[in-house]
Each structure stands twice: as structure tokens, then as C-alpha cells.
Amino acid sequence: MNRLSLAALGTSALLLQACMFSPGMNMDTDRLIHEDSAEESLVEMVQITPKVLAQENAVARDRSVPAQLLEYAPENYRIGPNDALFITVWDHPELTTPGGQQQTSSANARVVRDDGTLFYPFIGSVEVAGLTQEELRKIIRDRLARYIEQPQVDVNIIEYNSQKVTLSGAFMEPGFRAINSQPLTLLQAVGEAGIDPKRADLSHLSLIRDGEVYTLDYDYLTSNPSEVGNVYLKPGDKLHLALNDSRKVFVMGEVERPSALPYSTSRMTLSEVLGTVGGPSPISSSGREVYVIRGVEDLQTQKATIFQLNAQSPSAFILADQFEMQAQDVVFVGAAGITRWNRFVSQLFPSAGILGTAVRVGSDYNDIRNDN
């Protein structure tokens, strides 16, 4: 056996091992789909085409403002417990400012009790909860008329404490917001509380009203023509702006900067994702192997979907710019063939010593034979 024959034997051993290993960062889609029967497969491969984009957009959730929220029309403010009132009886300072005119209005205010009643001189305890300012003014005027000739009465609310809405989540100033005589809109409440741009998921603003939860895409509604400006808040409403902790897209494979990308807006496209991480590697990536892996909650009843984009196609940029990502999507860019082979060789470098060993054995064998 000569040196060449032994070298060939070593090469054959190396190639045999090559058949037993995966060639690096490459998604073996054939194995994913065909390893089991189609019914038992965990994934469904879908080529990104204009038709697929149209289907995806058709099943997108309705982002309009729910009709139930638009039906509510605020009425005149009604007095409630803990509201502070300043009651003026003209020409009767002893009734208007019992603490003295030198005191502030708040010091002379009359606070509605927790049970909704208010004590006032001459007329005693009055049920005021649920009354408007005008209704209370008439009651006080009519009852004082028994003791004062033609009393001139005015009622003002100087502290609104009974009707509130609650804001929680990714607001700069979460907490309570009082509803006063001026109707409070959803946009006003969010504006006053301020949005934390680093923590907020602008696509998920929840309004909880009377036990019902309404989810609003705040980013979409404020970026496009909508009726969100006509949504008024009702006493007892709760606004919760979700955090974007779980709203991420994971990018891996042959890209310049693999990373987890958080996003707070309602829309992020595949082209934006690839652009943010520097795009597919021009040296090692395969233009045909750009995948978006979208999982499901229950793999026993549903199939995960793997969308494939052929980035070598002239229309790829248009398709990528229209393909909308979803939270927790995984973008994977596969490696080019030569890159996979180079990685495989480097992974099996110790095994490549078989070739060197074979060459050395052949050399020693020939030297011994020549000496004899």
C-alpha cells in the first residue's frame, strides 16, 4: 500500500464522519417537515409572498375604538363624598366665611361627609351626594328662605375628591386622576400621566370599565385617523399601559449583531428588524435562508409557523417591509454553503488529524520497505 492509498483511506474516514454531523448554523427544513408525517409535524413552512401578506393582514385584529367606549357621554358633575364646597350667601359673611374673611377659601370650605351628607347652618344636614351644583344651590336657597329674605346663594366645588380614574403600568406618574366639572378624555389622562418611552408597550393600553376590559392600540390610534379623541373617561375607570418586557423580537444566525430587540410601537417590520441588527452578513449569510419562526401557545393542538423569505429575490425588500412582526418572533438567517462547510471542518479539526496520521503511516511504511 503506497502513501497515496493511505491518504485516500484517511480522507474517506473524514468524509464518513462528515455525514454524521450537522454542518453548522443551518436550518434543516426538510428534516423538520418530513421527519414525521405531515400531520405529526410541529411546524408549517410558509414562503413569504404577496398572497401570504394579504392573508396575514386580513386576519389582523381590529384596531378601531370599540363602539361601547364611544357611547359614553359625560354629564354634569355630581357631588360626592369628600368633595370640598365653597358656599356663598351674599350679604351674609357669617354663612359664607364662618372662619373669618381673612381665611382662605379652602379654610372656609365645607367637606361632604363619607355618607354623602353636608351640614349647613339653619337648614341642618342635607343629602348632597349625587346632586349637581345647580341642584344643591336651589335646595340651600329654598331652605334658607325660611330664615332669610330672598337669599342669593352660589355653590362652587373647590376640591374634586369623589370621582377618580386610576392609571397604572408604564406611566411616568401613575396613580389617581380626579374627574372635575370639565369632562376628562382618555388622551388628556394619558397626557397628564406621561408615558415612559423605555418601558411602555404602546400597542397595549387597557381600559377597564364596569368589569369589561377594552384593549386599545394606542400607537396605531394616535398615529392614524381615529376616534380615540372622543373617548371620555367615566368615574371608576382604570387605565393600564402594559410594559414592553415581553415585547421583543429575537434575531440570530448570520447577522452582524444578533440580539433581542424590544419594541414599543404597534408595528415593526422584518426589514426594520434586519436593518436594526446591521442586516445579514454579506460574507457568511445565505440570501435564501431568512426565516421568521412564530410559535404557538399549545403545540399539541396547533402548529408553529416558519415563514421563509428569499432575500435574493428582487421583490424581497418590498415583502420584508410589509411583513409585520409579532412579539416573541425569532428571526433566523442561515449560513451560506461554503460557510457551513468551513465551520464543519473547524468543528472536526481534531478528526482531520486522521488524514495527517494516514500520510505519516504511509511514509513510515515506505521507508521501512526501502530499507529492507
UniProtKB/TrEMBL annotation:
<feature type="domain" description="SLBB">
    <location>
        <begin position="163"/>
        <end position="240"/>
    </location>
</feature>
<keyword id="KW-0472">Membrane</keyword>
<keyword id="KW-0406">Ion transport</keyword>
<feature type="domain" description="Outer-membrane lipoprotein Wza C-terminal">
    <location>
        <begin position="336"/>
        <end position="362"/>
    </location>
</feature>
<keyword id="KW-0762">Sugar transport</keyword>
<keyword id="KW-0626">Porin</keyword>
<keyword id="KW-0625">Polysaccharide transport</keyword>
<protein>
    <submittedName>
        <fullName>Capsular biosynthesis protein</fullName>
    </submittedName>
</protein>
<feature type="domain" description="SLBB">
    <location>
        <begin position="248"/>
        <end position="333"/>
    </location>
</feature>
<dbReference type="Pfam" id="PF22461">
    <property type="entry name" value="SLBB_2"/>
</dbReference>
<keyword id="KW-0813">Transport</keyword>
<dbReference type="Pfam" id="PF02563">
    <property type="entry name" value="Poly_export"/>
</dbReference>
<dbReference type="InterPro" id="IPR040716">
    <property type="entry name" value="Wza_C"/>
</dbReference>
<dbReference type="InterPro" id="IPR049712">
    <property type="entry name" value="Poly_export"/>
</dbReference>
<keyword id="KW-0732">Signal</keyword>
<feature type="domain" description="Polysaccharide export protein N-terminal">
    <location>
        <begin position="73"/>
        <end position="157"/>
    </location>
</feature>
<keyword id="KW-0998">Cell outer membrane</keyword>
<keyword id="KW-0812">Transmembrane</keyword>
<keyword id="KW-1134">Transmembrane beta strand</keyword>
<dbReference type="InterPro" id="IPR003715">
    <property type="entry name" value="Poly_export_N"/>
</dbReference>
<comment type="similarity">
    <text>Belongs to the BexD/CtrA/VexA family.</text>
</comment>
<keyword id="KW-0449">Lipoprotein</keyword>
<dbReference type="Pfam" id="PF18412">
    <property type="entry name" value="Wza_C"/>
</dbReference>
<dbReference type="InterPro" id="IPR054765">
    <property type="entry name" value="SLBB_dom"/>
</dbReference>
<keyword id="KW-0564">Palmitate</keyword>
